[in-house]
Amino acid sequence: MRLSRYFLPVLKETPSEAQIVSHRLMLRAGLIRQHAAGIYNWLPIGYRVLRKIEQIVREEQDRSGAIEILMPTVQTAEVWKESGRYDDYGKEMLRIVDRHDRDMLYGPTHEEVVTDIFRSMVKSYKDLPKNLYQIQWKFRDEVRPRFGVMRGREFLMKDAYSFDLDEASARRAYNRMFVAYLNTFARLGMKAIPMRAATGPIGGNLSHEFLILAETGESGVFVHKGMLEKTVPANVDFDGDLQPIVDDWTSLYAATDEMHEASKEAELGDALVSARGIEVGHIFYFGTKYSKPMGCKVVGPDGQDVDLHMGSYGIGVSRLVGAIIEASHDDAGIIWPESVAPFKVGLINIKPGDAATDAVADDLYAKLEAAGVEVLYDDRADERAGAKFATADLIGLPWQLVVGPKGVAAGVVELKNRRSGEKVEMSVEAALAKLTA
Amino acid sequence: MRLSRYFLPVLKETPSEAQIVSHRLMLRAGLIRQHAAGIYNWLPIGYRVLRKIEQIVREEQDRSGAIEILMPTVQTAEVWKESGRYDDYGKEMLRIVDRHDRDMLYGPTHEEVVTDIFRSMVKSYKDLPKNLYQIQWKFRDEVRPRFGVMRGREFLMKDAYSFDLDEASARRAYNRMFVAYLNTFARLGMKAIPMRAATGPIGGNLSHEFLILAETGESGVFVHKGMLEKTVPANVDFDGDLQPIVDDWTSLYAATDEMHEASKEAELGDALVSARGIEVGHIFYFGTKYSKPMGCKVVGPDGQDVDLHMGSYGIGVSRLVGAIIEASHDDAGIIWPESVAPFKVGLINIKPGDAATDAVADDLYAKLEAAGVEVLYDDRADERAGAKFATADLIGLPWQLVVGPKGVAAGVVELKNRRSGEKVEMSVEAALAKLTA
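Above: the input entities. Below: the structure tokens describing the complete assembly.
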């Protein structure tokens, strides 16, 4: 993409309304623009990041055996009255009355809708287990939306719902999501730690939160230092027994400040690490909480009806954009992990209009594009080199490839790694080889 | 994907509420399930088709130079009051009051929101032209939603918005979308015909509808038979002059029953074809209708402020799922064009449990998956062969690859083309070669 044709509205000033670094950087780097309180427009590079995260989440859900569907954003109140949550949910639920005076709402979550699908379409234990997931926009009418996409009102979530015949099978479904989450966050370039969590309004008695560690995180966390060194298992067989992996990842102490136990921490001594984290995933097993009131049951092997055991599993997809920035930035701007970067390479022509420089830069652009490398080509004629470097650092692409007249005369270009800051001069061929490897 | 693990809730009976064939087939083949009037759940194969259409639409928008963003579904009423449409829009607009008693709405379209983005972020003529698009869910509170996804309330649209300095430049933007639409519908396997259209509530004085021809289409259309033979130009240069292409595609008579002129049709004589069509795209040039009241202007080359010339360009993405089925089905079910089929191949094991048959079918499944071919593997142990064939015809995958004990003993499998009905016995190797070619 040529920047001269793109839409990258970078702000020079830091917006005063932004209290946290990810919010400031998302506004400054032109990722988002506020439409109304807690409601954002996703601008081109922001939306590219969001879609990359979404795709990684999707692939790891698919790999675990979950099946993608899409439920509507606007729901009828009827199913919420059946589950008993319509009156409980309070003012966070955005309630809507349609032209025929029917009570509707903008879904804050989809337990009721998916249970309604399942009860009408699945009749036999032979069709179990199943895990249906979606990646869909939701709305929670927060009283004080803030921190940009970290606590917005309209937000994108992955939510999965498992249906099983009994608790043991439901526990296996829970374990599959637990491991899928480890894989997902690792692919996003993040260190995420599962912590035993309160179940809150979703209900149930087994629940874990996944928190990304970031110095600027919203929650205090207390973890055994061994948690920080665990590696995510490779090539997991999701048909196999995942309990050992889950046991391993829950064997050491890890708790948010809401759930922590001072007595246990005292025992840990030097092994205790106190840090900060951002919640990016939450998984629940809640048994028959929804299936029983909503009549979601199947005929079991013995011919008797069985209420299904359910769990639900969320990942905050739009929140992750902010969370990744909180965990990965410096004073100059964002530092994207390569897996979610809006482009892999920022190609900077420091003197557009200079024929020799243009020839090298245009050729590099064409060859990188032809090789399938995502490049943002800063070909703007009316910006100084310094402004181009500042923009490149701010938007945080993993690699900056700098082409200028002096280097071109000497037969070299400069390749900068955004994360390490390391700059290396090399031939055009060497730069191409490195970026297309 | 193994069907035994998938979620494909096929209905045996034709649902009585469905009046048109696409709605019937989408319910029967398990593509959608109604949640509330005009609001649908997208089940796994339906959602796969929707996403494939979305991706083709996206690629053709990108190729034409449009830039993807995402605007929120929930909008503030303020921008609609600025444009003057808030009171005009009537009951089709789903109005919402949030917890702080602010007037909000679920966007039926996004002219106001995108104009608000543009006016705040683009200040100079040097940043023009621009075309920003999104693929986003919208809501129109239809008084009588019907025909399934063809006239639903919550629906997915691609909507693009162009911004230009003057009418001539805006006309070029219009032409780029015109040609992008020809490419898009051709890639979807459809014959789409542009027709001069009324501009309605969007406003403006230049507009075309694109209609897919289908015997069961909602609108009568009258076209010069030459329109049916036109081919879509290949490898268009979107930086070049597209006027000749647009002129060619608008040179012959084509009109919907709403706009047709009997006198012109009489002149055509035998060249007139009367058919039926389904509207799947609509493009508008409307000049300064929104930019002027909303103050969307830039500094022009002479230092004076200029109100921007705008157009908007829609494709009904979810509607296309129904429209393609209307145009491509038979008595047995759907016939997907390969570009949007949920899977390319239905692999049918007609005797699961028979060791030799399982070995061949499992091996074919593994090899097709490894080659990146999308396969739905009907490995169900409890269904008769007849039911499997009926399901395969109903869901309409382009190829059915049938593996049974008799064929396996003779060293052959059967490959059926869903569209032509042609069945050919061939070796496993030949079938693999054909399907991975």
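Note for the figure: The longest helix of chain A spans residues 167-187.
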